[in-house]
Amino acid sequence: MYQWDNDRAEDAKFAISANFVFRHLPTLQDAGIGIDAERRLFAFPGSVPAQDLWEVNTRIVSKLRPDFGFIANLYAGNGQANGISERTINRYGLDIRTIYKQFKFIAIARFDDWGPFDYHRDFNLTFPVQLTADISYEISKPDWFMLPGTKIGIMATYRTLNEFSNRYSPIESINAAGEFVPDPTAIGFPNGNEWEIRTYVQINIGK
Predict the structure, then answer these.
(1) Distance in angstroms (rounded) separating the CA atoms of residues 110 and 92
(2) Fewer beta carbons within 10 Å, N or C terminal of the chain?
(3) 95 lies in some domain
(4) Residue 1 covered by a domain
(5) pTM of the model
(6) Angle value at C-alpha 109, between 21 and 143, nearest 5 degrees
């Protein structure tokens, strides 16, 4: 279950593993490194506060037939940003990958978690709900890894946003310079949302 290529190597009809990680962090950590809007490296002026952290992970693999199976990963726990935010988040989620003959389906659900990019964790940018679904058809048999192949697919992404999310702008207020700027901390407004539907064609020409 812990081989680097377990996604391929595991062929049991049902296999499961679980682990619990507890980190006792009684002192401040070293300051982290971030990247600003101009893509320049900088050191944060401090670090997150001392905080004990925990996380539970569960992995389920089921290869019912050579051409049909699924892999699921579930997690829950708390976490801290890489920067200087004092907010500790409590996050949980799952991802499921299924292969049936030449079709591959991926579903991802994350709740109160960081976004998909490094800077989301650096600056503690979280989203209440993040949902992704991707279904594709491949000319050859799909691989459990994201390797080059010739396929066609459609992917949908949906997120909700709150005061801890970038791009959340329930209302605009006037700043000291007289400019209208987003006010994500305004009271009495519902969560925002954003969504995207993408179709794609990937062609791989091998030697």
Answers:
(1) 6
(2) C
(3) yes
(4) no
(5) 0.88
(6) 90
Rounded Cα gap, residues 173 and 130, in angstroms: 28
Q: For residue 40, count other CB atoms closer than 10 A to its CB.
A: 8
- Report how far apart the first and last C-alpha atoms of the chain are (Å, whole number): 33
Contact between 6 and 61 (Cβ < 8 Å): yes
pLDDT digits (tens, 9 = 90+) for 61-112: 999 988 899 999 999 999 999 999 999 999 999 999 999 999 999 999 999 9
Residue 207 resides in a domain: no
The total number of structural domains in the chain stands at 1
Which structural domain, as residue segments, surrounds residue 122? Answer: 6-202
Q: Which two tokens stand for residue 113?
A: 């978690």
Q: State the Cα torsion 38-42-91-75 to the nearest 10°.
A: 100
What is the per-residue DSSP string for 66-86? TTEEEEEEEEEEEE--SSS--
Question: What is the model's pLDDT at position 163?
Answer: 93
- 3-class secondary structure, 119: helix
Distance CA 185, CA 166 (A): 12
117 CB-near residues (< 8 Å, 6+ apart) = none
SS3 state of residue 47: coil
Q: What share of the chain is helix, strand, coil (3-state, %, to 5)?
A: 5, 50, 45
